[in-house]
Amino acid sequence: MSPAVALATLWGAWALWHVGAGRAPDHRRSPALIARQRSLRRWVIAAVVALAVHPMLAIGVGVWWTRRHLAERRRRANEQAARFADVPEVADLFVVALSAGLTVRSALLGVADQILIGGGMCFTFFAALGHSVGSSLLEPDRIDDCKALLDEFGDRLVLPSDVVALGPGGKVGDPEAGGEVRNMGRSVPDGWMGLDIGPGSAAEFADHVLEASTVLWNGPMGVFEDPRFEAGTRSVAQAVADCRGFTVIGGGDSAAAIAQFGFEDQVDHISTGGGASLELIERGDLPGVEALRRAPNAVEADESDEFNE
To answer: The pTM is what?
Structure first.
């Protein structure tokens, strides 16, 4: 056996394992992800055969597959945007961006059955309900906006019922600095800072996610970088990974969280831009995506459908 054939065989065996079912059981992955992994295995086999024949042929196969893969990613992104814009399915949307969050949330309420609100954004809603928030993150100038959303869409906005808070003297990200950590309800005492959703809320949010047919997660449930306040985000990440619906991670901190907990290969799509993904949902298009569609070498969506056949 020539060195090229031996190398191709070893690389192919590793690649097939890496993208195969060994990464996660089929019942833990969505049908769309399973289909893409099976398709990818076929392209890996083609590349292995090409490498065994001639290295330049393998490069050609790789370039061709990469172009098809990028076209498929673009098609899927546009398809997902159309789904949110035109089809009011069950969609659990986690939005905790502050200044832009309320604007985007208002747009999403037109198509989403439920929006689960965690992270720092929930405390502005707590204040709108009359609860004290202590030293937690708060946007006083958006309280009236939150009241208006609660009055109009209160049946579709799901707020945490409990939080995990850090007491006076504690330091975020430094467990050695001291400070008491306590589970409490929606009211946070003076000097305390809410930094994660509580265990009850985490279980409730997970139930909503597992029942959804479409999930967009944008924003962690708390300061997950600190192990004392990672439980809520971990619980939601696990639920998104276990969900049998179409799952999208909005990018930014959500992408970092899903990777930290080891679930990045169990979701359908991870966006590389959190703010951009929200803008796409809000406005229906992005300048960069529009430019790609108009490019002279753009691949039509129906051509890239062969990727998953």
So the answer is: 0.66
